[in-house]
């Protein structure tokens, strides 16, 4: 599927991959915004690695690989991205009440809100948070039986006041106050193919999965302090068999 799209991309000047379309790998769909996602994941990984001693071989290897991949993704900038980012920051500055600002990226934005995340290294990650679709088939049952309408009886005086207060409140959003959010420019199919070729980790969706797992792994490695000496020292010659040139 993906190879077919690449061939079609060569026919037209600018071909974009359709988000949510099949990639040819089971369970893996075309990512909606792989570039901004990878920039965020790599930046957070480098930030978390700062808490691990520089002498750690784990930090040295992951840091070198992450910086290399980050430079590849940064070099592939979508057409008009710089202008879009400038306009996005301006919109966020003019509507602070409608944006959530997180300096660590640990708090999820409210449903349906616009989210502006500021991360390490002076980099800005701007995106719109779409409310997740809810499927009633998978909602957890609260244990109460559905008796139909009118089974709860009349409302009490306090409850009626709360309802009247909620219904009679002034609307906080309207046609004149709604923020006009411009979607982020996306990479072309050729740019994505170039990134995949330079990284050499499969499809860019697979690269995103690896980056997500690496970010989680940093926390695990830091929790177990893998850079510290073992409490029980290995016996002399225990690992000799696995060294190069030992056979």
TrEMBL record:
It is a peripheral membrane protein. Belongs to the complex I NDUFA5 subunit family. Its main location: mitochondrion. Keywords: Electron transport, Membrane, Mitochondrion, Mitochondrion inner membrane, Respiratory chain, Transport. Residues 127-180 have a biased composition (Basic and acidic residues). InterPro entries: NDUFA5 (IPR006806). PANTHER family: NADH DEHYDROGENASE [UBIQUINONE] 1 ALPHA SUBCOMPLEX SUBUNIT 5, NADH-UBIQUINONE OXIDOREDUCTASE 13 KD-B SUBUNIT. One of its GO terms (biological process) is respiratory electron transport chain. Pfam families: ETC_C1_NDUFA5. It comes from Daldinia eschscholtzii. The keyword Cell membrane does not apply. GO terms for cellular component: mitochondrial inner membrane. This is NADH-ubiquinone oxidoreductase 29.9 kDa subunit.
């Amino acid at each position: 599927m993906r190879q077919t799209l690449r061939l079609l991309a060569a026919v037209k000047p600018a071909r974009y991959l359709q988000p949510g379309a099949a990639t040819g790998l089971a369970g893996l769909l075309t990512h909606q915004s792989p570039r901004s996602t990878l920039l965020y994941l790599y930046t957070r990984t480098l930030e978390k690695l700062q808490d691990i001693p520089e002498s750690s071989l784990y930090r040295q290897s992951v840091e070198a690989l992450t910086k290399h991949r980050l430079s590849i993704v940064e070099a592939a900038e979508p057409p008009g991205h710089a202008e879009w980012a400038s306009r996005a920051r301006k919109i966020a500055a003019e509507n602070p009440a409608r944006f959530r600002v997180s300096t660590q990226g640990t708090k999820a934005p409210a449903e349906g809100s616009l989210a502006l995340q500021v991360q390490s290294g002076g980099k800005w990650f701007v995106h719109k948070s779409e409310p997740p679709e809810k499927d009633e088939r998978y909602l957890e049952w609260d244990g109460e039986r559905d008796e139909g309408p009118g089974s709860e009886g009349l409302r009490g005086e306090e409850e009626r006041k709360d309802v009247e207060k909620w219904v009679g409140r002034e609307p906080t959003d309207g046609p004149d106050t709604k923020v006009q959010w411009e979607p982020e420019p996306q990479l072309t199919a050729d740019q994505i193919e170039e990134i995949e070729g330079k990284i050499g980790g499969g499809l860019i969706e697979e690269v995103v999965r690896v980056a997500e797992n690496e970010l989680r792994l940093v926390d695990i490695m830091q929790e177990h302090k893998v850079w510290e000496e073992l409490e029980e020292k290995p016996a002399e010659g225990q690992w000799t068999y696995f060294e190069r040139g030992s056979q």
